[in-house]
Amino acid sequence: MTSFISDQDFTTPAHIRVTLDDVKHEDRGREPRRGQPGSAAPFHSMVLLAAVWLVVSAVPIGYLGAGRYDVFWSDAVVGITIAIITTIRLLHPLAPFAWVIGGLAGWLLAAPLVLQYGWSAATANDLIVGVLILACTLLGAAD
């Protein structure tokens, strides 16, 4: 009987294991999943970092100090949702969640008008992060 632990190679360093995996995939005539030119992983990583910033930004921008709980919750829920979906897309590159992330980025662009932020740091933050996420999602979906 085998288990996940017994099937793993713990004696070979990780950077050598990855190289061996790539060589094995090339020997079979398939493209290796890691290290492909034109991979969308850097775009997904940028989206993940932007989502984390969206959740954390409530502290330096001061949403709660200004009494803007609606802005805080909007950014927190959108940021956590984007982070979860992007993590799934990083683990499974063919996962078709680009439309969901694009829709959430669209919400970030529309939220200052819908929730009536006024022109503030929260508005600038949502617009910049929304454009960044939308651009990275479109570029990542193009690959």
TrEMBL record:
The keyword S-adenosyl-L-methionine does not apply. It comes from the Bacteria. It comes from Dactylosporangium sucinum. Keywords: Membrane, Transmembrane, Transmembrane helix. InterPro entries: SPW. This is SPW repeat-containing integral membrane domain-containing protein. The chain crosses the membrane at residues 43-64, 97-115, 122-142. Pfam families: SPW (PF03779). Residues 46-137 form the SPW repeat-containing integral membrane domain.
